[in-house]
What does this fold into?
Amino acid sequence: MLAAAQRPTLYVGAGLRRHGLTELVVRLAERLRLAVATDVLGIAAIPEGHPQFAGVYMGALGDPAVREMLDGSDCVIGIGVVRTDLGTGFWTERINPKSRILIDPDGVRVRFYRYDGLAIRQVVEALVDRLPASDRWIPRFSGSSVPQLQPVDGESSGASSGSGIGPDATLLRVADILAALKRFDPARYSFTADVGDSWFIAL
It folds into this structure.
């Protein structure tokens, strides 16, 4: 399937952290020259500053470019993905079942077939050891494809005169905070968010 694929992708989840597979999967992505997306629970399962990291897949709720990449792929290798309502964009995932290879903690699903009793680490190690290195072009992403956010009124936030505190200061908006956070290097900084609106905004 991988050899015949024109648009193969790697889709990873929380299973990478749970089974200590991050380093192996990064090696696999680099060896096979695959674009990598995570599910919601797998955020930061691989370094988000890695040039092959495309973003987070959330079905219809996520980045349209990442959605098109996975939904339009002819070979999606999923490793440690935990399918949930939110992670699939409330079941708006459109990854073609005929294009899926899903490597779970205790088995592998290839298209409509399931092979039980295969440990996730052994499967990933075998892929790294046995699959030949690819000569396809290396996908590269420079941060998120989400457009840069601008303050609602088109003006920079902060003080209109002086301290930024008091009735003559402009409002600090969520878009301003996100624009500032996006300037931090994700390879050097991690962010956490509480549940609810802040979590959705952080995604």
User: Anything to note?
Assistant: The helical segments are 15-18, 22-32, 64-71, 120-130, 174-181, 197-202. The beta strands are 8-12, 35-38, 53-56, 75-79, 100-104, 107-110, 113-116. Confidence is low (pLDDT under 50) at residues 144-164. The first helix runs from residue 15 to 18.
